[in-house]
């Protein structure tokens, strides 16, 4: 795993340099070069994750493995969409976080063994949860980008560059991502209520409660946008609030348990 992790970090760093060095260049970064290098990093990252998660004892879903898996899903998504969506502004954040997540995977390898082969319904719930969280974290990146573009437009400091997408385009994509994330989150909560007997057990109830609160935040955002319209600043607040609640739900207690108290 060391070779795969170190190599993934190396190629992520190259992709990061390729993006940031020409982020505000009139022609923008070379998307073909970025996508090519990032694809190698994503493949190596996947290989490191495979070795870290699939063990002889079972599936190791430790905190660092899950964080790295979420970052891999986000990095994979942005790399695949490199040529279709104007997402270059947030790509440096994505690849920088991927470098950190691979480093965590390598340097902090706690164990949290699960046997999904015995509980396929739990696997379905976990997969939906990870997909929902990843989609809504991508939405949070779009929200940050949206706030930055609006702020620059107000100050009349925005540079014309292929790396800077139109404000309305980013806003539209933000709502599409939130809708996808809410659908996945709804399915995740539904499978949790159906298949998990201990969703509200001691030590786990906070996850369900915070996830439900995040769901209500996103539903409120979509309802407000549909009926009366949602200002960009309000949409950003909704999106980041929901993302914060989900992060606390998914990782709050596990950070304390696996990294601080271990």
- Gross geometry: flat
On the 0 to 100 scale, the average pLDDT is 85
- Helix/strand order: HHEEHHEHHHH
Unreliable residue runs: none
Helix content: over 70%
Could you provide a short overview of the structure?
The protein has 262 residues and is mostly helical.
Structural notes for this entry:
The chain is an all-alpha fold and 262 residues long. The chain folds into two domains: 1-115; 116-262, no CATH class. Helix content is 74%, strand content 3%. It contains eight helices and three strands. It has a three-stranded antiparallel β-sheet. A hairpin with a 2-residue loop joins strand 1 (54-55) and strand 2. Helix 3 crosses helix 5 and helix 5 (120-155) runs antiparallel to helix 6 (167-195). The radius of gyration is 19 Å and the shape is flat. The mean pLDDT is 85.
Give descriptors for this structure.
262 residues; mainly alpha; three-stranded antiparallel β-sheet
Question: What does the secondary structure layout of this molecule look like, with pairings?
Answer:
Layout: H1 2-20, H2 31-53, E1 54-55, E2 58-60, H3 63-80, H4 91-107, E3 113-114, H5 120-155, H6 167-195, H7 205-227, H8 232-260
Antiparallel strand pairs: 1-2, 2-3
Helix pairs in contact: 1-2, 1-4, 2-3, 3-4, 3-5, 5-6, 5-8, 6-7, 7-8
